[in-house]
Design brief:
Blueprint (H helix, E strand, L loop, with lengths): L5 H20 L26 H18 L2 E6 L5 H11 L1 H5 L7 H10 L27 H9 L5 E8 L6 H6 L13 E8 L9 H4 L2 H10 L2 E7 L6 H29 L9 E7 L9 E2 L2 E2 L18 H12 L3 H4 L8 H4 L29 H4 L9 E3 L1 H15 L4 E5 L17 E2 L11 E2 L4 E3 L3 H13 L3 E7 L7 H16 L9 E6 L17 H5 L7 E4 L4 H11 L6 E5 L5 E3 L3 H10 L1 E3 L14 E6 L1 H17 L5 E6 L17 H8 L5 E5 L4 H7 L8 E4 L10 H7 L4 H11 L8 H21 L4 H4 L14
Parallel strand pairs: 1-2, 2-3, 3-5, 4-5, 9-12, 9-13, 10-11, 13-14, 14-16, 15-16, 19-20, 19-21, 21-22
Antiparallel strand pairs: 6-7, 8-17, 18-20
Helix pairs in contact: 1-2, 1-3, 1-5, 1-10, 2-3, 2-10, 6-16, 15-19, 19-20, 21-25, 25-26
């Protein structure tokens, strides 16, 4: 291996540092051709210097090995506000000007590059979708390492370098992310090189790992299964030694990675257990190469360098002079030509084409995306002789569908879940694959293999992060989870949804496969779990995000669930939330009808209601969700039997966003279409899967909103039967039917006898659960064709 040209490598680092400082401070005079004036500096100084020089240092060294080895590499920046580094290196490599043609590679381009940073109409201060080469939103910490692992699954030629900040290392998701090495197959996957960057401080406090004795830190990393290599910058001015030390550690790590992969891919010589992958612990001063002392206080190497070390530029001439001295210390005249271009001898240090980390297609995964080969929908659908005649588990059926997707797409589709794939009835996938597992196995273990397509770990954070990294680098997948516990990733969902929103607005970013949540074991059917497992509020959280990004589906039966899954697997640039039960439930629609219903997203179920041609209904029964749909259809049956003259319309909603106005959401219904379904003046009783106020929020602009009465989950629950859960929250068939009697003006006192009968039946159903510990037969055995209003007599 040739001796690195450390002099030119150091010059690249200085150029990146210069550009980073310029982004934080300057709006004019980018090459310092004249003394710096107050007008050259931005009015508002926003950005983060402290972590940036370390990121630039690592980036420069990675470029060296990319050129030497032609290694495809993805740079994942964990230190959240290291955005100046990403932008600086993208400009130096030429990618920034290719993507943003108005930011040239000359003095004017430099001025525009500086001015746009943290500026109105410009770009954020952190690594964001606007940054070429980034797949990682730097706004929230904790996700660098898990994203890197997600990126290299099924990408055998890719090396993802994840720089983990020591503040980030204190977060829960990052602490769990170290375990990802136990799921990485060296024969079929790429590799991750973690670089734990210890610069000592967060915003205002020291960091735990930086203050940990080196031997203890070595033991910690070794205990996680890594081989740590320590590089310590003890003298901030001895940069030549720092370059030599880091280059040696990096070369040794890459040699180890190649050896592990070579043994796995060629020799088959891998002992049982997880390989001991290398990592680097880089100790460097926070704010390295920046102002040493400001106003008599130490800045370099302390928390004071975290954001803007010289913050009083406009009120302190001394700060302005110190800023100019700081920027001139990098020798801009040695780095850039008179017209502002990077000097050719330095420009040649950038890798070529797609090997540039700022231009790699792995960071713009739509370029690599291939459509899934999907199984035949009708081959999995349930034949329905009459509505509700077949009771089938939607999740078992979808498990077979996912099994066939895996078989047809063996290198670009995976299932992720927190130890719940079997619990959620998706076990059919194990007919064609196993769970990925590199650690020790025992005879009692089932479905564990190095090459498994299912990734299970008891961390929703890892499942979310792995899938994000997998999707952002051009593949497809699904995250299955218990409904109540998907809340654990609320914040991660926030960050990803925000990424997608901006990603959609950037013409140079290609569409990626959608993020598919498959949520089951839901609030209404808990089996042996209780109140702690009952929370449908993830939907409420999701719909807060930009309408172009989010979709929510509540399929009422197996065939609609299958049709929704088929649809979602073909979508791009959205987050799809699909919620269904795993227990056998009535199948209302045949295969073709279910597919049409999903494409409409909402529709009238004539078989469940009773209407007269040319006349408005007396009442509309709306429903969304499998259990609410069952109870609504049953309530309609009770009313049809008890009040033969009552005109009842049943409207089922499978795409929840159809309830919104079309001006609010791309799936929203136009006002007239909504009024045609729900009328403009008749009572609407709506049974909903989640918290009832969301339906009001989605429909508040509708004409008939004042007549809309929603029943849903209201925080009543325990370990109990499914029907008792419905009764506790008053979405049961009897409560819905009584609500109709109470709210339809033409009924009221004329139906007192029927209402009392319904109330008595409800009491008998409740008492049966207390006496027998299970739901009554007249509940579990109910069918659509029952005609008696007193089911207890059947």
């Amino acid at each position: 291996m040739p001796e690195p040209d450390f002099e030119r490598l150091d010059a690249w680092w200085r150029a990146a540092n210069y550009l980073s400082v310029g982004q934080i401070y300057l709006r004019d005079n980018p090459l310092l051709k004249r003394p710096l004036e107050g007008g050259d500096v931005k009015a508002r100084l926003l950005g983060h210097w402290g972590t940036t020089p370390g990121l630039n240092f690592v980036y420069a060294h990675l470029n060296r090995v990319i050129r030497e080895q032609r290694q495809a590499m993805l740079f994942v920046t964990g230190p959240g506000h290291g955005g100046p580094a990403n932008v600086a290196n993208a400009w130096l490599e030429g990618t920034y000007s290719e993507v943003y043609s108005h930011i040239g590679r000359d003095e004017t381009g430099l001025k525009d590059l500086f001015k746009q940073f943290s500026y109105p109409g410009g770009i954020p201060s952190h690594a964001a979708p606007e940054s070429p080469g980034s797949i990682h939103e730097g706004g929230e910490l904790g996700y660098a390492l898990v994203h890197a692992y997600g990126a290299v699954f099924d990408n055998p030629d890719l090396l993802a370098v994840a720089v983990v900040g020591d503040g980030e290392a204190e977060t829960g998701p990052l602490a769990a992310s170290w375990h990802s090495n136990n799921f990485l197959n060296p024969a079929l996957d790429g590799a991750v090189l973690p670089i734990l960057h210890l610069n000592g401080y967060k915003i205002a406090n020291p960091t735990v790992l930086a203050r940990m004795p080196e031997e203890q830190l070595r033991q910690l990393m070794s205990g996680y299964g890594y081989e740590p290599h320590f590089v310590t910058v003890s003298d901030p001015r001895a940069t030549a030694q720092a370059h030599r030390d880091f280059a040696a550690a990096l070369d040794e790590c890459l040699t180890t990675i190649r050896d592990i992969q070579q043994r796995a891919r060629s020799d088959g010589d891998l002992p049982e257990g997880t390989p001991r992958w290398p990592m680097i612990v880089l100790r460097s001063p926070k704010g390295w190469t920046g102002p040493d002392v400001v106003d008599g206080k130490q800045v370099e190497g302390t928390w004071r360098s975290h954001q803007v070390p010289l913050s009083e530029i406009h009120t302190s001439p001394g700060h302005l002079r110190q800023l100019e001295e700081w920027m001139r210390s990098y020798g801009p005249e040695e780095l850039f030509t008179e017209t502002g271009e990077l000097r050719p001898d330095l420009a040649s240090l950038a890798p070529e084409g797609d090997l540039r980390m700022s231009a790699t297609p792995y960071a713009n995964g739509g370029w690599l995306l291939r459509d899934l080969k999907l199984p035949d929908y009708f081959g999995h659908a349930v034949k329905v002789d009459s509505p509700g005649s077949e009771k089938v588990s939607p999740m078992i059926t979808v498990g077979g569908y996912l099994r066939d997707i895996i078989a047809a797409n063996p290198t670009n589709f995976r299932v992720f879940g927190p130890d719940e794939t079997a619990s959620n009835r998706l076990s059919a996938v194990y007919d064609v694959t196993d769970k990925a597992w590199q650690a020790r196995t025992e005879e009692v273990d089932e479905h564990l293999a190095r090459s498994g397509r299912v990734l299970e770990v008891l961390s929703e954070h890892l499942c979310q992060g792995w899938l994000e990294g997998y999707l952002l680098t051009g593949r497809h997948g699904v995250f299955n989870c218990y409904e109540a516990f998907v809340h654990i990733v609320d914040s991660m969902f926030n960050q990803f949804a925000k990424w997608l929103k901006v990603h959609q607005d950037l013409s140079w970013r290609r569409p990626i496969a959608s993020f598919n949540y498959l949520l089951s074991s839901h609030v209404w059917q808990q089996d042996h779990n209780g109140f702690s497992h009952q929370d449908p509020g993830f939907i409420d959280h999701v719909v807060n995000k930009k309408a172009d990004v989010i979709r929510v589906y509540l399929p009422p039966d197996t065939n609609t669930m299958l049709a929704v899954t088929e649809h979602c697997m073909q979508t791009r640039d959205t987050v799809n939330v699909i919620i269904t039960g795993k227990q056998p439930n009535p199948t209302w629609l045949g295969p073709e009808e279910a597919r049409l219903h999903v494409r409409r997203g909402i529709g009238v179920w004539d078989f469940a209601g009773r209407e007269d041609a040319g006349a408005d209904p007396d009442v509309v029964l709306g429903c969304a969700g499998d259990v609410p749909t069952l109870e609504t259809v049953a309530a309609a049956g009770l009313l049809k039997a008890g009040i033969p003259s009552l005109r009842i319309r049943v409207v089922n909603v499978v795409d929840l966003m159809r309830l919104q106005d079309d001006a609010e959401h791309p799936h929203g219904l136009k006002a007239r279409a909504f009024d045609n379904l729900f009328t403009t003046d008749r009572p609407v009783i709506f049974a909903y899967h989640g918290y009832p106020w969301l339906i009001h929020r989605l429909t508040y602009r509708r004409t008939n909103h004042a007549n809309l009465h929603v029943r849903g989950y209201k925080e009543e629950g325990t370990t109990t039967t499914p029907f008792d859960m419905a009764m506790l929250n008053q979405i049961d068939r009897y409560s819905l039917a009584m609500d109709v009697i109470d709210r339809v003006p033409s009924l009221g006192s004329t139906q007192a006898s029927l209402r009392q009968s319904l109330q008595d039946q409800r009491q008998r159903a409740w008492q049966h659960t207390r006496d027998a510990g299970e739901d009554a037969g007249f509940i579990t055995g109910w069918t659509l064709d029952e005609s008696s209003p007193d089911d207890s007599q059947n």
